[in-house]
Amino acid sequence: MKRELEKNYNPKVIEDRIYKNWLDKKYFSAKIDKSKKPFTIVIPPPNITGQLHMGHALNATIQDILIRTKRMQGFPTLWLPGTDHAAIATEARIVDKMAQEGITKEDLGREKFLERAWAWKDEYGGIITEQFKKLGSSCDWDRERFTMDEGLSAAVLEVFIRLYEKGYIYKGERLVNWCPYCETAISDAEVDHEEKQGHFWHLKYKIDGEDEYLEFATTRPETLLGDTAIAVNPNDERYQKYIGKTVTVPIVNRQIPIIADNYVEMDFGTGVVKITPAHDPNDFEVGKRHNLDIINIMNNDGTLNENAGSYQGLDRYEARKKIIEEFKEMGLFTQAREISHSVGTHERCKKTVEPLIKEQWFVSMSEMAKPALDALYNGEVRFVPERFSKIYSHWLENIQDWCISRQIWWGHRIPAYYCEDCGHITVKLEAPSACEKCNSVKIYQDEDTLDTWFSSALWPFSTLGWPNKTEDLEYFFPTNVLVTGQDIIFFWVVRMVFSSIENMGEVPFKDVLINGTVRDSQGRKMSKSLDNGIDPLDIIAEYGTDALRLSLILGNAAGADQRVSFEKIESSRNFINKIWNATRFAMMNFEDSEITANLNDLMPQDKWILSKANTLIKEVTQNIENYELGVAVQKIYDFAWDEFCDWYIEMIKPRLYNKDDKTRNAALFTLKETLTIILKLLHPYIPFVTEEIFLTIQEKEETIVLSEFPKFSEELVFSQEEADIELIKSAIKSIRNLRAEMNVLPSKKVNMTIVCEDEKLGDVFKAGISFLQTLGYANEILIQNDNVGINKDDVAIIVSGAVIYMPFSELVDIEKEILRLEKEIENLKKEVSRVENKLENEGFTAKAPQKLIDEEKAKGEKYKAMLLETEKQLEKLRK
């Protein structure tokens, strides 16, 4: 062997070198081979503002396991990477940085701001990509895409124009979710509903011309400045006499009608509801039914506008306080009740969202939602686990038109052009030189940009070259599986499906594999407030990438949250060291790189381990196919640690150490063959250490990345040998357990007699006698079919079809053991007495907590049981 493994595995030295070699050799490059079926995954593009976190690490590791497995199975594989421009998040980051310099967007103007934005992207946007590489991600980096690169931008504009011409995209004035902090509209999917503490403010309006009042409750008193009606249920007898009358809104002195509408619940609150069509989606619908005025009282930044009268210019929350005070002064305030209620917040900036009437661009969803739902019900799209399909179907069944315009500059600018003279809108790829309606040359482009998710929705096909008919698009689309979190099923998965059906005529992927959330050892979500976050880059620096990846997948199940702790990461590193050390031991015995053997030359223990490995291959392959990645790696882990390292290597040591043993070559062959199988099965999970070891134990192949994944073989099914060796293992375990119970040290070897009437069974024990001696700590082993020579005080161990006898006197020095037990009894009696005295002491029982008293009682019972058992042992020895 030319190469050697270092004494200790050092990932810091190895990982960067190996990854660079993989990139240099283009092992991850996708090759089109029309004679084979491809396997494709597109990465959920991380934001260019992002930093690698444990969620990224889990998601990327799952994708890499699937891709590496399929690559080794001979599929032309493409794992397409890229990043998202993250419109709102990126613009906010740049604006914050400019604010530190005392500069605003408006100071710079749009073009100069975008120059800054691209410069920021060039400086920081690649950080997340390099971090993904640290995870060992085997993406085809030559095909990396960005949602605002030239090709994807062309795809975005093409889709916009097609949908506009089809009548699916329209511009209209509607109530939208407005973020006053980011000063932009956002879609329903971008609103998080969080439970927050608030108040129900009970206020009242005086009925015009009468000495009576209508009391109502609201969580947003400031919006009453935009009230255009008071509503009651038409069936509510309490208020029927007031329907058609009016009240006057204080402060703005606006007279508004009292209307009847079934929207009002009679048994909720007072049964009276203020109607503010411009600031509440339900009120907006009521307003449409009753032709109410729509009065917007809020500016884009959350301050009140001219419609708020004297409150103009106040922040919404400041206005709320002053209105309550003014209502108190007017005697129109009755009470304030503290409540916990659901508040819409912007998922990006976490600020409270305001429903506002705005003119925005929308995608009509009624027609596009239907085929996306059908795709689920027809089985064209499958969720793993299936329960997550409910999120998908619920969103589509209740979908609203999608607000796609954003009032920011970083993003895809809407290709709509307005004529200043006649107001005509032209939607085209290129700016028109003149109005197509009146020929005016006074043309300007819409200032708004598109929702980030509009471009992300096209990701599976735009990244492959659409709208051009590229070779990549023809071969690699549709993709096979999308790996993502449940939190973006409605943001992204739904939109990719309907966009793909609309533009490609088919679904973008067959399977949607949901990964859970990474939590700490106590099951808590990782957060800054709890200070329980684990930085994957810190873990990589200290333990290596493989240890991180393994800890994330061990115990992992699709859709389930995953607990990760430093103990688990250390355990994963220990497993890697175990494989490393097992390889170093094997290499001490490999004189040549090529070791061959005939199956007929193999010993039963050789056939046993190869047969077990063969079964493992079959099960692991099926588990990975079913996305049971955690189950698969646990099986490999158990086989490698227990069967291979702890059993097989120990079994063959006598053969390896004896160079004259004719079966030594068979042992070496099996050792290397099984180790190679383990490395290949583990490679998708822990790619770095498996590559380093693989290149060290063989010289035929230049990388494990492209090596063939193990296949199940009927030729390697050795059922009888498996049963035989499992019997001997069972015998060894029983021997070790008995010796442990009797406190016999491993160094003390004894004679054994194995009695079995079945001659074939006797042959099984004879075949395994060398390792039975070693692992069972035996001197001489006799195998016979009767009880001749067995003494009545010999210790017996019963195993299937046989009895193993060991002379008691050889196991134990009776005189020494009697002395030891007598001393043990003396100590136990003292402990029993101490506990009894303590429990009889009233000073202790009167003052001590009940928990402490119970603990002492439990100790007393434990010591009494130990005393009884030790006395029995002593009596038995004396006899």
Detailed description of the structure:
This protein has 879 residues and is of the alpha/beta class. Helix content is 45%, strand content 17%. A hairpin with a 4-residue loop joins strand 5 and strand 6.
Summarize the structure.
With 879 residues, the chain is an alpha/beta fold. Helices cover 45% and strands 17% of the residues.
- Distance, first to last CA: 61 Å
Give the rounded overall mean pLDDT. 92
State the oligomer: single chain
- What strand order characterises the main sheet? 6-5-14-16
Tell me the overall shape.
globular
The assigned structural class equals alpha/beta
> What portion of the residues fall into strands of 2 or more residues?
15-25%
Low-pLDDT residue intervals, each spanning 5 or more residues: none
Helix content percent band? 40-55%
Count of strand segments:
29
Major beta-sheet overview? 4 strands, antiparallel
Determine the number of helices (DSSP H or I, runs of at least 4 residues): 29
Cα-atom radius of gyration: 38 Å
